[in-house]
Design a protein that fits this description.
The protein is α+β, with helices and mostly antiparallel strands. The protein contains 3 helices and 5 strands. Bound molecules: adenosine monophosphate.
Length: 145
Amino acid sequence: MSLDGTYDDGNIFARILRGEMPAARVFEDEHVFAFMDVFPQSKGHTLVIPKHSRARNLLEEEPQVLSELVLGVQRVARAVRAALKPDGIVITQFNGAPAGQTVYHLHVHIIPRWEGVPVGRHAGGQMADAEELKALAQQIAAQIT
Ligand code: AMP
């Protein structure tokens, strides 16, 4: 899919938001929903998405929704840091298939990094164990302030 297109209500993140698909929930408020990435690029890889949005990517998003999303990302990233003590955190976001986007509901990746530990492949590799993701989500959730 290119940068242009129509929002698909059947995309996986829309289904998670509607409760039709499971997710290891980290945090939720009226604006954003944060949950563990099932194909984590590192331990603690978390996604943050706007709850009330039909933007496929950042370019399409309303300023107010984008503002709340960024604030949510900062809040969750701080909790990831407190919970997992990484040496660094990559915060990233892809727009359009050629850029690496695979799910077309705007989302931001929070990827903790440790010195000397290579990062995994984007949107690929091994699916994480659901119980492990749940435990990590709880660990991070406990640090939300
Ligand atoms: P992107 O490629 O930037 O669109 O990112 C989509 C991300 O969603 C990838 O990192 C996938 O591993 C992740 N993902 C796909 N399906 C799910 C799912 N059901 N639950 C959690 N994360 C998912």
